[in-house]
């Protein structure tokens, strides 16, 4: 793995902590966790590299708006949406907003690890 970072933006604390453990043991990276997308945006910059793992439905700002704002700041960062709502056109809206991948909850760990690994090694 290169020096890229993993950012997890989700209001579900249990999921965030589980993913943080998964990535720290698998890649020896310490993902940065944000429960509030607005706080994440205050700290995110165009110098950041890596992969964002984002939920769609969060308080303060939804994931679609977050994706658009992130891509305005930094087009190079890769974004994976994790959402329990993959029905309707949620996935297509996320991809149109700038997400690079959409994974429906519940998800297989290998599916997420494969996506993150592919994005971090590009």
Describe it for me?
The chain is an alpha/beta fold. It has one domain (5-121): Response regulator (Rossmann fold, 3-Layer(aba) Sandwich), CATH 3.40.50. It contains five helices and five strands, in the order E-H-E-H-E-H-E-H-E-H. It has a five-stranded parallel beta sheet with strand order 2-1-3-4-5, sandwiched between helices. Strand 4 (78-83), helix 4 and strand 5 (101-104) form a beta-alpha-beta unit. The longest helix has 14 residues, at 13-26. The radius of gyration is 13 Å and the shape is globular. It comes from Fluoribacter dumoffii.
Strand content: 15-25%
**Low-pLDDT residue spans:** none
**How many separate structural domains?**
1
CA radius of gyration is 13 Å
Domain Response regulatory: 5-120
Protein name: Mycobacterial persistence regulator A
Organism: Fluoribacter dumoffii
Pfam family, one: Response_reg
List key phrases describing it.
Rossmann fold; 122 residues; 5-stranded parallel β-sheet; globular; alpha/beta
Helix/strand layout:
Elements: E1 5-9, H1 13-26, E2 32-34, H2 37-43, E3 50-55, H3 63-73, E4 78-83, H4 90-97, E5 101-104, H5 109-120
Parallel strand pairs: 1-2, 1-3, 3-4, 4-5
